[in-house]
């Protein structure tokens, strides 16, 4: 349901209707009460428009004016951001930080990347061990805590926020590598 949108004349007419009845309270268009009601109506209309915008701006996914306050609350923007992010990217990062419940499982990290606007597939690596399926990659113990994040996006873009966020959420001691397929 959209927020109500009243004009200054709507507010002016409402103010005139609130006046007491009597000879000094003329509601004629050229009278002093009508003139004052139109002036005050403009102020009420401006305040009404701003409050309707506040309803939209209070939510992180649609905010623009309150974005700096949301970012300050969440410790954003990150120091690793190398270029100017678009408004949508900034909003997505705020939403991801607010809705992120914490975790370091692969499904959680993939869902978190979706919140940032990316489609990723995370492949864990491990050292070779007895009983591994035939055809598995042979890796040493150094591969025990490594992940390959395959991102469905072109390599030419600035993906520092995605890389920073996934590395921040990964387990301690984990190395995260990124490959871009777009």
Question: What are the defining features of this structure?
Answer:
mainly alpha; three-stranded mixed beta sheet; rod-shaped
Describe this structure in words.
The protein is mainly α. It has six helices and three strands. The chain has helices at residues 8-18, 32-57, 67-74, 87-99, 106-115, 160-169; strands at residues 120-125, 146-151, 175-180. Strands 1-2-3 form a three-stranded mixed β-sheet, covered by helices on one side. The chain is rod-shaped, with a radius of gyration of 28 Å. The protein starts with 7 loop residues before the first helix and ends with a strand. 13% of the residues are buried. The mean pLDDT is 86.
Could you outline the blueprint of secondary structure elements for this entry?
Layout: H1 8-18, H2 32-57, H3 67-74, H4 87-99, H5 106-115, E1 120-125, E2 146-151, H6 160-169, E3 175-180
Parallel strand pairs: 2-3
Antiparallel strand pairs: 1-2
Tell the overall outline.
rod-shaped
How do the strands line up in the largest sheet? 1-2-3
Which sequence of SSEs, written as H and E, runs from N to C?
Answer: HHHHHEEHE
Nearest-integer average pLDDT: 86
Structural class designation? mainly alpha
Uncertain regions: pLDDT < 50 for 5+ in a row? none
Percent of sequence in beta strands: 5-15%
The largest sheet is: 3 strands, mixed
Q: What is the count of DSSP helices, taking H or I runs of 4+ residues?
A: 6
List how many beta strands DSSP finds: 3
Q: What integer value in Å does the Rg equal?
A: 28 Å
Q: How far do the termini sit from each other?
A: 39 Å
Helix amount: 40-55%
């Amino acid at each position: 349901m959209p927020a109500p949108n009243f004009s200054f004349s709507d507010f002016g007419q409402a103010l005139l209707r609130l006046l007491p009845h009597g000879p000094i309270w003329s509601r004629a268009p050229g009278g002093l009460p009508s003139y004052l009601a139109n002036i005050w109506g403009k102020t009420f209309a401006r305040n009404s428009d701003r409050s309707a915008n506040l309803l939209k701006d209070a939510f992180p996914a649609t905010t623009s004016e309150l974005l700096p306050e949301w970012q300050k609350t969440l410790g954003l923007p990150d120091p690793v951001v190398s270029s100017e992010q678009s408004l949508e990217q900034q909003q997505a990062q705020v939403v991801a930080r607010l809705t992120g419940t914490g975790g370091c499982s692969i499904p959680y990290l993939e869902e978190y990347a979706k919140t940032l606007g990316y489609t990723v597939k995370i492949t864990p690596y491990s050292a070779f061990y007895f009983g591994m399926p035939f055809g598995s990659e042979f890796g040493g113990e150094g591969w025990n805590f490594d992940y390959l994040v395959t991102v469905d996006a072109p390599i030419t873009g600035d993906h520092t926020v995605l890389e920073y966020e996934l590395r921040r959420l990964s387990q301690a001691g984990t190395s995260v590598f990124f490959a871009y397929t777009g």
